[in-house]
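Sample entry (220 residues):
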Amino acid sequence: MKSHKGKRLVKYVPDYVVFDLETTGVNVIKDDIIEISAVKVLGGKVADTFSTLVNPGRPIPYYATQVNGITDEMVEDAPDIREALADFLAFAGDAVLVGHNIQSFDLNFVSNAAEGLFGKTVENDYIDTLHMARSCLPELSHHKLVDVASYFHISAEGAHRALNDCIMNQKCYEELGKLQANQKLELCPRCGGELRKRNGKFGEFFGCSNYPACRYTRNI
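Predicted structure, serialized as tokens:
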């Protein structure tokens, strides 16, 4: 599996691309992308959208269809992953990528496919709204996208289809950015991640939240 090379950022940025995938399952090696959607945002305002179904070249498992509603018939005339992924990467360009749980899921699928198909490394920096929500909304017991949307009274209608999730998450991200503006964040000077207080062998210190990718530390 190929990992992405971009840095995880924590501070709100106004120019970004929200993206989301639907897949045949959760295993990045064995499963396939069947939908890619994205929303391009400039200055906090939606500027463009992208969405395509993807023909995986094999039957979509029943359990996947039960989650996202995508059937074999729906993808029959859709582009294959080579065409769909190339179009998405061109749409995203070098923008900061935003998504919910993309560090552990969506970016892994995109990066693995890009490496396998094009020998290309995905180097976009990214913001994971799951991590952002945990930081900004610690009072919530769960931080799924629908939970965050509910907190902000944002409609979750059509959840688990990629474009609907992008639109929902874009609104959530903007609201999280407003909450974050009232927080005091200490950022890692090396990678832009959040510095967090930790305990070590010699007492407390500040360490980067992107550890082990970034090993920056600072004494308290």
